[in-house]
């Protein structure tokens, strides 16, 4: 009997909910101080207009808000709403098998979890959203993460942990219903395809016509292969040693890229977007059928190292350089919705452009599945789930700052589609000056020369802009003549984990496909059947490859066509996850706390449905996919060619792409509505009954003693000491050992 | 363990970083396995075999990487 409700747990009342603070007065003073600093920073941001505002105000407003949210709100959710119970054994303890179920030290698991959730998303979204000004993005990233994103990650992690690490799709099927489950499964698969296509598109846009970038990124493949072989056969288990070698080679590859011209490779490495698409598709296919140890795992080590390294460097550089924001607090594009980077007004589009960093549905796939099988003690979900997401949000804030410190003429010259800028410094300067951001052709050419790129005009996708911002901040902070190196360092950093995400995502998609088709055709579900593996990989790669190809060839600019679809898809996935969380809270009889996930769910549904509605039904061709399709179809019928399309074939292309995107957009929204409707039925039944049985596994007493947060309190240390003296075990490598 | 005996903050920090790297890099896991074998009187497999078995088991269920 796998059903149980939380009320059946033994002696819940005597559970010590909180340890008494050592010094209450000290605590009060500390948190009053943090609140005052935070409030002061927000006030400066709120009232500064048209004067030079330091980027540090944003940084500290965010950090203080995170600290308060973690200390109070995350604690409230973990202890009062979810009633995480350290007397209850986690799946890692009960089912430990040395591979997926494994009791893991909380700080180590935090590292693994963060590496899995943080990718290019929090870097790219804020860069694009900077078109609205720095303030809307900052507010959404901070408020969104505190009340939505981190809550989702924490609650999904908790519920999955209470169900032995079941996946999101499995939980939706078992706790909401088969219809909702199937809709969720299709939604997850389709959303993953779009996410992979957009991520790949960002890489293509960053590498096209950039021989330095192509040289460095291409070299990561042999470097990773070498690391894989080294780690598997030459020095098994020496992960740090292997990573150190890899990092040295990687830095050499970035430096070496600066000499492509001297090496005579510049011409052969100047690749068009179309060539890069073919390269990426072939790469994605090969990488997803190769054993993970050969390519995926070693590159994952490299990208994690780069990720942590860049975040630490960027935080330090921001403090050293103290850059001033060049962006406006709120631009006219936020009000009028006519921005060149992406169309649509502040509501709802800022909230879907910035997904990762504020609220990312994709995290629900990681919070259910891998991480919950490794948690040592229940209360650690606060540190791992909520804390991990706060860290990702910090990355997003840094990216927003990097995009907001560069000259705004340069920002729009880089981010407006080629159809608008005309592609040359002269036409681009005229275009952005017309937008109200004065720029000269010389300044744009000089900016490209500073980073040793042939051109920076219409380098859309967010990655080049972020790299430009990072290179400027690093250049200011650390001095030297290294801006070109920092630019390519940042490009490498983004491309690395996008490639890791593409590789891992293709593999996950392949497994999903094999598993699903395996239900009707068992042979296809057999993972050892090579032909089946090849077919499934080809289908997944072909699907995202199609969108990638249409993206790079789209006359209207792929990023501004596909990014809204990507953002809405990610937020719709979040809607599915939050629907599940809310349903579960109510089924567990915690209706008085259902607002904790219910409010972010309501907000997310309003945002995504409003955005979907506009993208499907808007009569403005710049926003509505179908309006756009019919405008071009009508023009085509009357023999006209509408700019930026250059001929009838491109006109037809716009019609096809817009129609496909519109259909997908409708499909995503429909799937979410099905899940939500199915959940509503379950919620009504649960409300009538007071609570409903769930698939939560029954209580089993834990034999482990472990601190809950990153730093152990005095009481926790004492409890661990007594436990170890009595011969008990703790998490981590050694029995009864470890540094604490 | 040793880390609890050292007292200066710097030495503590160094020990902490070293401990973290050993944990996250998997050395601690391998040593725990050796200790487990000693306790139960098993003959441990080679490091290569141990690590390959672990990697292959993990490969059977790939973890997603977020965007």
TrEMBL record, chain A:
PANTHER family: INNER MEMBRANE PEPTIDE TRANSPORTER, PYRUVATE_PROTON SYMPORTER BTST. It comes from the Bacteria. GO terms for cellular component: plasma membrane. The chain crosses the membrane at residues 28-48, 54-73, 114-133, 139-161, 182-206, 212-231, 243-260, 275-296, 308-326, 346-366, 386-406, 485-506, 527-549, 561-586, 593-613, 663-684. Keywords: Cell membrane, Membrane, Transmembrane, Transmembrane helix, Transport. This is Carbon starvation protein. Coiled coil: none annotated.
UniProtKB/TrEMBL annotation, chain B:
Pfam families: Sel_put (PF04328). It comes from the Bacteria. This is Uncharacterized protein DUF466. It comes from Quadrisphaera granulorum.
